[in-house]
TrEMBL record:
Source species of the chain: Labrys miyagiensis
Protein name: Deoxyguanosinetriphosphate triphosphohydrolase-like protein
Top-level taxon of the source organism: Bacteria
Family under the similarity heading: Belongs to the dGTPase family. Type 2 subfamily.
Keyword terms: Hydrolase
Length: 406
C-alpha cells in the first residue's frame, strides 16, 4: 500500500515547525493506513492498550479509598490530553501526535503514584533501578502483547522520541548524561532500545512532545489544588498569598461576591488552566513566528524548550508548586498513607523475587535459569503494571492481610 494518500479530512493545517504527518518510520515496517495518519494510529493503539485501561485504578496523590472524586492516572491523563490538544491546535502543531504523547506519558507509572515508583526504585537499586519514563518505553516496545508480528505497540519514531525526551535531552553534546540522569546514568531500558533505533538522545523532542509535557505540568497545578481542597488539606484562604492563585481568587471575589466554596473552587481551577495555557500559547507564538524555526528539526536543535511559560508565569508556577509541596504532598495524612503504600510495594517485590512461581505462569516464562537482574526486572514489570486494588489484593494473597490506606 505504498503511496497511499491520507484523506484531507484527517490532515489539519500545520506550521513548518510541526512534525510531518507521515512518520520517519516504525521499528517493524507496516503498510500505511488508508484512513488514519501515523499518529492517529498510534493514539488509537495507546487507547486500546492494557496499560492504558489500568490507569483507571492507579492513583495520583491519594489512594482509591479516599473517595471517588479525586484524580486517578486516567482522569489526569484525559485532562493532560485535552490541554495538549488545545496547545497543539493553537500553535499549528500535529494535534494527533500531541494527543498520543499525552495519552502515553503515564503508562509506566506504578500503583500508589510516585510513592510506588520511589519504593520500586529503592528495591530495584541493585538491579538498575526503576524509572517510570523508561517503564513507559518498555510497555510500548516490549510488554504489551497484542499483535501477531511484534511485541509492544510498534509506535512511530516520533511518538517514541517524544515519550523518551518530552522532558528534554538525555545526553549532552559531549555524550554524557544530562543533569537528570548524571548521578545514575540513562535507564537500561532506554539504552537497550536506543541500540535498535536511534532516538537522538542529545536533542530536544518535537514541539508536540513539549506540548504534552507542559500540559502535564498545567494539569498537575490545577487538579492538585482541587484535590487538596476537596480533601481538606488546606482551604481557599490559604491560597490567597500563593502566586497566581491569590490573584485569581481576588478577581473571583470581586466579580462574584459571596460565591459559594464549590463554585469558587471550580472558577479558580478553570482560570488557572486558562491563564497557564494562554501564556504558553503566547510564548510559543512568539517563538514560532520569529522565522528561526522552519522545520521540526529546527525545534529539536533549538537548545531549549520552546513550549514554555513566560518568566512571570514561570515564577508563579514555581510558587504554586512551592505551596503544594508542604501543604499537600508532604501533609501528615498523605505521608502516613504513603508509608503504608510503600511497604506494600516493597513486600510484594521481596516476596515475588524470592519465589517467582507466585506470579502468573506467563510471567515466569524463561526465568528458570535466569540471573538475578532478569528476575528482578520481570518482578518489577509485574508490580509496575498492577492497579492499586490489585496490589492490595496480591498483598493479602501472599501475606494474609493488607494495610488500610487511609
Amino acid at each position: 500500500m505504498a503511496g497511499v494518500q491520507i484523506p484531507d479530512c484527517v490532515v489539519r493545517p500545520r506550521g513548518p515547525w510541526a512534525v510531518a504527518p507521515q512518520s520517519r518510520g516504525r521499528l517493524f515496517n507496516e503498510p500505511q493506513s488508508p484512513t488514519r495518519t501515523d499518529f492517529q494510529r498510534d493514539r488509537d493503539r495507546i487507547i486500546h492498550s492494557t496499560a492504558f485501561r489500568r490507569l483507571k485504578h492507579k492513583t495520583q496523590v491519594f489512594v482509591a479509598h479516599e473517595g471517588d472524586h479525586y484524580r486517578t492516572r486516567l482522569t489526569h491523563t484525559i485532562e493532560v490530553s485535552q490541554i495538549a490538544r488545545s496547545l497543539a491546535r493553537s500553535l499549528a502543531l500535529d494535534e494527533d501526535l500531541a494527543e498520543a504523547l499525552a495519552l502515553a506519558h503515564d503508562l509506566g507509572h506504578t500503583p500508589f503514584g510516585h510513592t510506588g515508583e520511589d519504593a520500586l526504585d529503592e528495591v530495584m537499586r541493585p538491579y538498575g533501578g526503576f524509572d517510570h519514563n523508561a517503564q513507559s518505553l518498555r510497555i510500548v516496545t516490549r510488554l504489551e502483547r497484542r499483535y501477531a508480528d511484534f511485541d509492544g505497540l510498534n509506535l512511530a519514531w516520533e511518538t517514541l522520541e517524544g515519550l523518551v525526551k518530552h522532558n528534554g535531552p538525555l545526553l549532552g553534546t559531549d555524550g554524557q548524561p544530562t543533569e537528570r540522569y548524571r548521578a545514575r546514568g540513562i535507564p537500561m531500558a532506554i539504552l537497550e532500545y536506543q541500540a535498535q533505533q536511534d532516538l537522538e538522545l542529545t536533542t530536544f523532542a518535537s514541539a508536540e512532545a513539549q506540548a504534552a509535557a507542559i500540559a502535564d505540568d498545567i494539569a498537575y497545578n490545577a487538579h492538585d489544588i482541587d484535590d487538596g481542597l476537596r480533601a481538606g488539606l488546606f482551604e481557599l484562604k490559604d491560597l490567597e498569598q500563593v502566586p497566581l492563585a491569590g490573584e485569581l481568587l481576588a478577581d473571583i471575589a470581586a466579580r462574584h461576591p459571596g460565591l459559594d466554596r464549590s463554585r469558587t473552587t471550580h472558577e479558580l481551577m478553570r482560570r488557572v488552566i486558562t491563564r497557564l495555557v494562554e501564556d504558553v500559547i503566547a510564548e510559543g507564538t512568539t517563538a514560532f513566528t520569529s522565522g528561526r524555526y522552519l522545520s521540526s528539526d529546527d525545534v529539536r536543535h533549538a537548545g531549549r524548550a520552546l513550549m514554555a511559560f513566560s518568566e512571570r508565569v514561570g515564577a508563579a508556577d514555581k510558587g504554586i508548586k512551592g505551596f503544594l509541596y508542604p501543604n499537600m504532598y508532604r501533609h501528615e495524612r498523605v505521608m502516613r498513607v504513603r508509608a503504608h503504600a510503600a511497604e506494600v510495594v516493597k513486600r510484594l517485590f521481596h516476596g515475588l523475587f524470592a519465589d517467582i512461581t507466585l506470579m502468573p505462569a506467563e510471567w515466569c516464562e524463561g526465568l528458570e535459569q535466569a540471573g538475578e537482574d532478569k528476575r528482578a526486572r520481570r518482578v518489577a514489570d509485574y508490580i509496575a503494571g498492577m492497579t492499586d486494588t490489585f496490589a492490595l489484593n496480591e498483598h493479602r494473597r501472599l501475606f494474609g492481610s493488607a494495610p488500610e490506606l487511609r
